[in-house]
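Problem: given the chain below (204 residues), write out its structure.
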Amino acid sequence: MQVKAFYGGGYAAVSYLVTDDTGKEGVLIDPAISYVEVMMHTPSMPHVAALLLTHGHFDHMLTLSEWKAKTGAPICVTREDAPALTNALFNCSRMFFGTDDVYPPADRLLEEGDVISFGNDALTVLKTPGHTAGSCVFLGKHDIFTGDTMMSDGAYGRYDLPGGSAEALYASLLRLASLEGEYILHPGHGRESTLKEEKNYYIR
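Solution.
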C-alpha cells in the first residue's frame, strides 16, 4: 500500500491518495483538496476506485463534487453520516458559515466490517462513533486512517456538534487503542503518527 498525504486542503483537513503496490488503482480518503492539485503532484494518476469519507463534516468533503465529476468513483460513507452530504445542518456548513453547502449523495453506505478493494489491496471499515454518529476509520495491513476520531499527540475530534457524543467517542478511542499490531496513523488533521504512540494516551 502506498499513501500520499495532501495538506493543502481547506480548514487544515488532510486528504489521502491511497494506492495498491502497483500504483495503478487506489482510493481517495476525505476529498478536501482539488483533483487538479493532486494531479500536479502525482506523475501517474491511478484509477480511483472509490471516494471514502471518514465522516460527514464539510471540511472533509470540500472537493467531493469535483472528484465525483472527474472520476465517477462511488462515494462511500457510513449509513449514519450519509444524510450530511445533502444537509447543511448535519455537515455543519450552516453552523459555521451560514451557508447551505451540499454535496453529491452517497453511492455506497458503509457498515462495520465492509471491505473496500482497490487493485491488489483493500481497506476494512471500523465504525468509531463519537465525533459524529457515523464516524469510521479505514484499516489496512499497516495503515489506519482515523479521520477526526483519533489524531496525533493525544488529540481527538470535538463531540459537541450534531451527532457527537463524548461517551461514544471515548469508547471508540479505547477500541482503537486496543488494536494489536504496528500501524501508521493517518489522521484527518495534523501530523501522521503511529497507533503505538497514540495508544499511550489511553492505555496505561
